[in-house]
Structure formats: C-alpha cells, structure tokens
Amino acid sequence: MDYQNRAGSKHGGGGVASTSATNADRRERLRKLALETIDLDKDPYFFKNHVGSFECRLCLTVHQNDGSYLAHTQGRKHQTNLARRAAREQKEGKGPDSVVPGLLAGVQVKKNLIKIGRPGYRITKVRDPMTRQNGLLFQFHYPEIAPGVAPRLRFMNAYEQKIEEPNAQFQYFVVAAEPYETVAVKLQAREVDRREGKFWQWFDEDSRDFWVQFLFKTERDERYSAVPGLAPGRK
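User: That's the sequence. What structure does it adopt?
Assistant: Structure tokens below.
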C-alpha cells in the first residue's frame, strides 16, 4: 500500500489513508490470499455469464472481474453461506463424506467419473388437440444409471454453450445423468409453456426410462404473455 504523496502529509511521511484507499488495499490483500488457496476451475460456485461478468452461484452476486470474485470468496457473506450449506447437508443426513475437505476455502474436489457413452433416446413430435400447441416428447434410456441418481434437465440459451457459434434463434435442451454423457438437443428459441399439464417429466426406476414432454407457447401467448392486464392463454 502506498503511504507516500498523500494529501495533507509531509514529504517522506505516511499520511492517513482514505476510506477508498483502505478498501482497495483490503480487496487486493484478499485477492492475493484467495489466489493461494482457490482454484477457480474447481470452484463449483464460480460461473462466467454470457456478458463476461463473473457470478457466485452460492450468494447470487455478480462481479466484474475474477479478482473481485476471489475477494468475495474470502468475505463474511460467502463464508457464512458455505457454513450454512455444510450444516444443512449434514442435517439432511448426507453424512460427513459429503462435506468436501477445503469447503470453507471455496474448493471442491471434482468427481473422477468414467463416462460410458450416450443413452438411448427417442424424440416424438406432439400436438395438443385443444390448443393446437406443438411440442416434443423425449424418452431416454439409462440401463446403467448410478444408484440413487435421477436424470436432471435444463434449457440453455445459445450464449451459454461454447461448442457452436452463438445464434439467438436457437436454444438447447440438456439432460444429464451419471455416468452417461450429457445429451443436448438443439431447438428453436421458442418459449416453453410451463403450466401444469403442458410440461412434465417422469423417471421410471424399474425400466430406467426418463420421460419428458413440453409444449411451446403459441405465437399469441408469446406475444402477449408479458403484457399486463391480459388473460393468459387457454389451458
């Protein structure tokens, strides 16, 4: 920290640091400390969004650079949330084995799983006879899925993936289940109708089949869904 050339101080002497200078020095010290203890590639809460900012998935905060994120991980809010999550997992009966060493430092050991290939799948086009909504029905077969594991799904926009050149006209439907490879299906960037009966999923533990069906909103619903005062689309 520079103690020279401060306003109001004699030449060669150290003047009183301002609040902004003190805070800047504290953040720099925290960043250097975090660099010695944290590997961002192994941090499960570190996420770089599509606009280049860095997010903390645990605290739901946004940071402009990695230094700011590293300083955040050493702060009271992040450490408190880490402790709360560890206590909750232990209370839920996940056992001490689920508490990863170094968790309070923001480091999590990456699982070393051997992928056994892609699951079998079938895709069928569907249409609601009442609303005339188009949709898709997916069936994934996981005969060797890990015990106690259920498939997970999400919709990913074009700017979150790094495989293809981002195109706002498309989105990706992603399904993951260990130890199989993650499957992604490229779809049109249309809004999905998430109302009851329009979007559902079910995993059959006996046959190891994972079923997912969703319908896209009609053009009218997409156009007026965000307009206040208008009734929602037909159910």
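Confidence is low (pLDDT under 50) at residues 96-110, 227-235.
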